[in-house]
Amino acid sequence: AGSGAGADMRTEISTAAAFVTRLLRAAGGVGEEQLRCFRECLQEAMHEHYKHHWFPLVPSKGSGYRCIRINHKMDPLIGKAAGMIGLSHERLFQLLPSELTLWVDPFEVSYRIGEDGSICVLYESPQPGGKVAKQLESRTSCKEEWRIGRSSPSKSYNMMTVS
């Protein structure tokens, strides 16, 4: 395994980028070519952003820095990738959950939709050195949850529908 900063974060980054791309695809209205470009741009932006903040020996170090977050403010990495395909922040807020947290850490990518949703693991690999990865409470309802979570608007503001 490479020891250089960010040597082996490709799987984690591509898992995270694919997840956000799937959310966009599920919302509809974005073409496949645009989605492909979005995914590539997001991976590139994440790679650039994380390269000096990736510590496989201490996976939790820098976790806050690598956390992708939408919470009434658009995450700059998602915003940047969306800008490359001509999607405005306003449009992104319509397409993506209003509250999304995505943790991209060495050996684990997980997400939560809504502030009190359960945390779901997208990708997990054993850490070298035989440390047992932390167990997460409830993994089962995750897929259903993001479908449900998407259709219920956040409590703190009213959704405006543009027809």
Automatic annotation (TrEMBL):
PANTHER family xrefs: ANTI-PROLIFERATIVE PROTEIN DOMAIN-CONTAINING PROTEIN, B-CELL TRANSLOCATION GENE
Name under which the protein is recorded: BTG1 protein
One Pfam family cited in the UniProt record for this chain: BTG
Similarity section: Belongs to the BTG family.
Gene3D superfamilies the UniProt entry points to: Anti-proliferative protein, N-terminal domain (3.90.640.90)
Domain Anti-proliferative protein: 96-115
Cellular component aspect of the GO annotation: cytoplasm; nucleus
Gene: Btg1_1
Biological process terms in GO annotation: negative regulation of cell population proliferation
